Amino acid sequence: MKLKTIQLSTLNHISKIKYLIYLCVLITPIWGYSFSSKSINIEAKSLNSQDIVITGKVTDVNGQPIPGVNIIEKNTSNGVYTDFDGNYSISVNKEGILVFSFIGFESQEIAFTDSNRIDVVLVEDSQQLDQVIVTALGEKRSVKSLGYAATNIKGESITETAQNNVINSLIGKVAGLDISNTSGGVGSSSRIILRGVKTIGGDSDQPLFVVDGVPVSNSIRSNGRVDYGNGISDINPDDIAEITVLKSAAAAALYGSSGANGVIVITTKNGGNGKNLGVQVNSSIALSTPLRLIDYQNEYGTGTVGNEYNYFDGVNNSAGWGNAFGVQPTALQWNSPVDENGDLVPLDYKAYPDNGRDFYDTGVTRDNSISIGKSEKDKYNFKLSLRNIDEKGMIPTTRLKRNFITFNAGAYITKKFKVNASLNYSNIDSPNRATTQNFSDNPIKMALIIPRHVDVNALRNYKELLANGVPLPFEITGDNPEVIAPGWDAISGDFFPNPFFTLDNNKNIYSNDRMFSVLNLTYNITDWLSIDSRVSKEFIGEKKEKKTNEGVRLWNGSQYSYKGSYFRDQYTRNNTFANVLLKGHNKIGSFGIGGLIGVETKEFILDGSNQRADELELPNLFHINNAVGEPRLNQYHNHTKTNSAFGQLDIDYKKQIYLTLTGRNDWNSTLPKSNRSFFYPSASLSLIVSDMVKLPTAFSYFKLRGNVGRVGIGTGAYQVEQSLLALKRLTGVFEASVANGINNPTLKPTRTTTYEIGADIRLFQSRLNFDIAAYIGKSEDQIQRVQLPASSGYSSRIINAGDIENKGIEIAINTTNIEGKDFSWESSITYSKNINKVLSLAPGLDELLIASRYSQIRSVARAGEPYGQLMGYGYKRDLEGNIVHSNGYAVKTDEQIVLGNVTPDWLGGFSNTFKYKGLTLTAQINARIGGDMFSLTNQWAARRGLSKSTLSPNRSGSIVADGVIDQGNGVYVANNVSVPYQNYIENLNSYGFHEPVIYDASYVKLRSLQLYYTLPKKIVNQLPFQSIRFGVIGSNLAILYSKAPNFDPEGASSARNSDLGFDEFNMPTAKTYTFKVSLNF
Amino acid sequence: MKNIIIKITSIFLIFSIIIFTGCEDNFDEINTNPSEFTEVPTHFFLPGSILTIANAENHYYDGYLYPSTWIQYTTQGQSRDATSYNYQDVRSRIWSTIYQGPLVDLDRIVVLADQENNLPLKAVAMTLKAYSYTLLVNTFGDLPYAEFNKVDQGINQPIYDLQSEIFNNILENLREVDTLLEGVSAIDIPLEYDLIYNGDALKWRKFANSLRFRLLIQLSEIRDVSSELSSIAPVFENASDNAMYQFSGVNVGDIYPPSSALGPDATEGQVHRMAAPLISRMNQTNDPRRSLYAVANDDGQYLGAYTYETFGLNNNYSKINPQFFDRNGTATFMDYSELLFLKAEAVARNLIVGDEVDILKEAIISHMQELGISQSEIDQYTNNIVSNGTNLEEIYTEKWVSMFGRGLQAWIDYKRTEIPTLIPNPDGLINEIPKRFTYPLIEQSTNSINKNQAIDRLEKGDVLDSSLIWTK
User: What span, in angstroms and rounded, lies between the C-alpha atoms of A99 and A54?
Assistant: First the structure.
């Protein structure tokens, strides 16, 4: 039956598209259509004579439409979903029953006879109050049955935070999950720790990431010099349907060893929101500026107290201890022009108050994505998405471009046999990333010590100035054409190049291509038994290069050189995963019995090499054969394989008591033959108390849960057999040497055991919900590389030793404060406290070094103390705690002492969401309280008289510091020695004096403010769209509380454990404003 | 259709199970690193050992900066950590470089060469081991020796042995080398693997004996050494016997280490300048080596700075001659000239017989010839110096002048003689010229009990001015 013919010639361009879209999206299921070049014919599908069409609307008790309600003709596979407005339309037989079901609501069955309109009101299922989440092995389970803490975050709240790195969207949202966004640098890594640090050395305590049932790598790519991000940022946030965080070992038992640190389960969207063809376009632009920089003083110029600045004189060139501005109105400066006599012309001598900030650009991130998807229940689904992110960093010349392509399709070959396949490709390309830490080419370090009188914008234009004949401030001996900043650093005795020159001529280049494919086959043998199998392949090719042009001064490992250098490193990572599961579930009387058995294999192969030309023969030709002398070559490998067999048994009684038992046996290639096979079990119990006993009416739901789990963990490759020799070829002969590390042929697996209890309490019709967990976990027999004294002949050996314990509590509170027709207000609070203790280390070992940095500040693990004690030289004090002075200066301790700890005491998050009609406003605050940091940034800025903290009425004079003098006979008297203020500050901030720059790293941040506006339907209906949404998102907006000056205590140079607790010229974190548009066709 | 699918699934399942589990037979192969070697010819261990010792002894901090500044060859105008005796052990590499590198590798040569009955090669390794240990024991004092390299026997924390016992052992080994190399002409390895002597066994024997001579002189104040001194032979006979390695100056690891801070590439960060005592002495004696060591200032003068002075780039002191610190500079382990200075000292102290004036003269001549000084200048200088006869102070002072550029050994000599008289920096953290390096901090966290026992035996504890058994 022909309904309508639309003449194309009558339509304008927009309308044509509109109709086309309508045709594709809306009409297809019900109506047929045909094209001709001039017209579109819309006609009803030829229906069976006995078929009727039933339409209707599904709403809740408040009359609000419910989208996505599943409507099935009972005992058939015929089914549809409600649309965004709760409407549905289904063609059915003349008689039958329609089943309306939706999670969280009671299902309804309605018989129909000939009627063609059925409106349904679904009632919330306050008894069931259940949610289905994806847990181990891609298995969907009801939250009710889980005996362990699992936090589920929906896809929208991930994409709405507009974070480039998926994981940052979880900050503050999951109790017990400690995430730090290390810096505002392009593609910077995020540090993720779940329930405390569990390994004493190394970085192997990152949680496991599982995407659609398959583990993916989240390797930390920092090489200690440049932060190249971590693997999880290769996942496109737009593709994520939900994330579930499983925290305990019991939850992870089925994932095997790598799940010991918790599991972050990511489920991707499989097409069209489970509805009809959906086209979604997202476009955003984000602007970033540094959140916190050094608070500089702007009153004093370059020089030392009592010595006028003279830029040719290295002695008086200390950055900020000179005369007050104004005393000396003009001065010769590095960019002074030359007059006709060839003399330098003095320029105004004044402060440039913004020169700290002027170093940075505004970071601009353009992010565009499109996805197309469609699915039909029990038939097929597909989704294709493309995304391009182009990030221009705040640090000039830094940039990161990323492309993602995801294709995911599934089809029912028969009613019982489903095939699903996905293919993900991502590509990262970075023409330059900044060097971090205390390296001479860290631009932050170079920019830090620029004196107050230097116009950074002039430094930025150095090429122009050079072309105009402005001379360089110093002639460096030899032929080194380096453009250096004014402010030859008398304190460190080092030259500091112009940071812009270095950024232009010294590049850290990075590229990464990742292909990740999964094939998933499911076969339902009977309605209670199925086979599920996954095979996946992850292939990563990564290349890092460092290209240093002629003229840049760089330490090449043994020399400072100006001849340029070239370094490249490339590897491929080839990861294979496969499993087969047999799953079943059935009912026997009041008991439900289910379970699974399965086998699995995981293999990781890494194959890499690097080449280094420490000096180049021909300038700026970056080829390894252009090396002066012989290039240094290296190759490296990593190959591990784990085979596993496992099983799970689920028993429930009346859906009120759930017991789950798991067991797993691993065969791990990294361990010696005798210890290669190991077994570990878990048990968890869930009691739905509210269903078992009559509780006061205030209780909507009350669940108690508990679990105990154990996980065995292997180690890295090649740590068993002694690798005897490192071989290299240098001066025309082979050089062999005995490897410095001692391996261990008797290694056994590390064991992690955790106990957890918790409760899920929902009050007042689920408007006040508590989720509480308490846990204790212990990792024993850790496989560690412990240091040996060099005098043993070796640097380290691998042993099983050391126990570490984490215990803590987590509380999550969710409330619905106001729920009205147009307005609603929801809040959530998370709190978690983790207490960490290193119980023991290897016999004979007092401490295990985690990190040792510039000037010997260290973080260590010591038995009986929490992980990550900051050790350094502190103030020497008398018995009353007064600081001992000598000759007027504070004295440091003879030995290193504990000055703090790098881990936080507790974490908190507070989030509020307000909805008014189409407007949604979310505000989130998060806190990370406790922990300490050593700040080299502060030390350098103070020592050079640059930071505001050095301002004092005594600045040009003397100070008699508070403290005491040791009389030598155990008697202390008040300090009465006056010393020059500058010298006093310099002493406090000198090399190897750590306590003056140890800061409390606590912070409270305004993490995000998000405002989204969804255009009303009646406006959208005029346009060829289903929905239009605008968002303005502010991230990392403000530090509301912090005691640490001049740096962001959230920052780090990378996500490695060894970088925690150190601010070594860390890149500032970014305050970002994102403007986002989402269009749904 | 249904049957087919069940069949497919069953096959798939069975296939998977076969692949996935039950087999761990290739795990040993998987866990073997394809990039690592397990067996190589024994002589492969030799060149790296030699190169590493050369690098360690001439390391910028341990080999040049600290010792050369302490005995006032040079001084720092800025960043005066060395000048003010602020020794930063984090910069010190000699301990770990020697212990973890050549000593382990040379131990391996000793074991393997013994098994292969290549005794001359064993003797070469023993000589280098003895040499390496002297670098450590002379700079730190008591240290692990007997329990070194015994991790395979479960010794992770080696005890620190007494210096006297270590010296006994080193000397014993050098005596054994003398026996092993007696009558041997060539070391049986490809010649290019012997970076010092190209496989010449006699030269190795002379080196081992000369080294023994040096050590005996060093211990001569606390032991009776004269009979052994007189019997040592053969020793260096001319400059062609010198034990040295010239760096290629090209490849990383094969560059004269201090060249970056002092050579043509120097950036003058710490404003290194010649120190007054050396320059004054050379001005006094009109030493022809002066222009090789130093650069005249803008006034054409040679002017050295005192250690207590701070100054910036804008100064008028003589720079260090960058040619003396070229990238392809030479690491001298021991040379003929040094042996002659030792002999002259031995004669002057009646430990051996001879003509001390002739020997001293020959020592200076040999040194100057090596530097390419013209014969007429040499004659003029030596005639001047020795015209009034000589005494111990003169011998020690001349040796001090000639050892410029070999900071570590020169400092070791100075600690024993304390001649010429040098005034310690009055603003220094200690009141004496340092006598030792402090133990590395890392030993504190990895071997504290043994380290602390050694510290208890030091007169002032683990500080720079604690005496060693043979220092003044």
Answer: 13
The residue whose two tokens read 């210890």 is: A675
Question: Which of A412, A659, A422, A623 minimizes the C-alpha distance to A518?
Answer: A422
Instruction: Give one word for B385, left, alpha or beta, with left for phi > 0 and alpha for psi -120 to 50.
Output: alpha
Contacts of B426 in chain A (CB under 8 A): none
Complex ipTM > 0.95: no
A234 and A512 in contact (C-beta within 8 Å)?
yes
* Interface test mutation site (partner A, options B36, B139, B147, max chain A beta carbons within 10 A): B36
Which residues, other chains included, contact B124 with Cβ-Cβ below 8 Å and sequence gap of 6+?
A: B46, B109, B187, B194, B204
Partner-chain contact A677 B99, CB within 8 Å: no
Q: How far is CA A283 from the centre of its chain?
A: 22
A1054-1075 pLDDT, tens digit each: 888 888 999 999 999 999 999 9
**Beta A52-59 vs A70-73: how paired, if at all?**
unpaired
Angstrom distance (rounded) from CA B401 to CA B382: 13
Residue A801: its pLDDT value, please?
A: 86
**C-alpha distance across the termini of chain A, in Å:** 27
Tokens in use for B248?
A: 């290629």
What structural domains and CATH numbers belong to chain B? 41-267+431-472 (1.25.40.390)
Q: Are A708 and A752 in contact (CB under 8 A)?
A: no
Helix ranges (DSSP H) in A429-480:
443-448, 456-460, 462-467
A630 within 8 A of A591, measured Cβ to Cβ:
no
Around A177, how many Cα atoms within 13 Å sit in the side-chain half-sphere? 32
pLDDT at A842: 81
- Going along chain A from its start, the domains and CATH numbers come out as 2-121 (2.60.40.10), 132-271 (2.170.130.10)
Our CA-based measurement puts residue B235 at a distance from the nearest CA of chain A, in whole angstroms, of: 29
CA distance B424 to B432: 6
How long, in residues, is chain B?
472
DSSP secondary structure letter of residue B238: S
CB A558 to CB B260 under 8 A? yes
Average pLDDT, chain A: 84
User: Which residues of A are less than 8 Å from B312 in CB distance?
Assistant: 313-317, 490
Q: Are the C-beta atoms of A1053 and A192 separated by less than 8 Å? A: no
3-state SS assignment for residue B227 = helix
CA angle A290, A292, A298 (to 5 degrees): 105
Does B314 sit within 8 Å of A312, measured CB to CB? yes
Q: How far apart are CA A649 and CA A661, in angstroms?
A: 5
- Give the model's confidence band at A981: pLDDT under 50 very low, under 70 low, under 90 confident, else very high: very high
Structure tokens at A367: 């992010």
Report how far residue A519's alpha carbon sits from residue A501's, in angstroms, rounded to the nearest whole number: 50
Binary contact (A991, B31; C-beta < 8 A): no
Q: Are the Cβ atoms of B95 and A791 closer than 8 angstroms?
A: yes
CA torsion through residues A1016, A1022, A1024, A1030, sign = negative
pLDDT for position A604: 93
Q: Which residues does chain A have within 8 Å of residue B33's beta carbon, measured at their own beta carbons?
A: 637, 717-718, 723
Q: Which residues of B touch A738 (CB under 8 A)?
A: 45, 104-105, 108
> Is residue A29 predicted with pLDDT exceeding 60?
no
Q: In chain A, which residues have their Cβ closer than 8 Å to the Cβ of B310?
A: 315
**Rounded-to-integer distance, Cα A288 and Cα A285, Å:** 10
Residue of B29, B98, B152, B267 to mutate when probing chain A, most A C-beta within 10 A: B267
CB B51 within 8 A of CB A734: no
Say how far apart CA A86 and CA A90 lie, in whole Å: 13
Q: How crowded is the C-beta side of A40, counted as CA atoms within 13 Å?
A: 20
**Dihedral over Cα of B16, B17, B19, B20: its sign:** positive
Element (H, E) at B396: helix B392-402
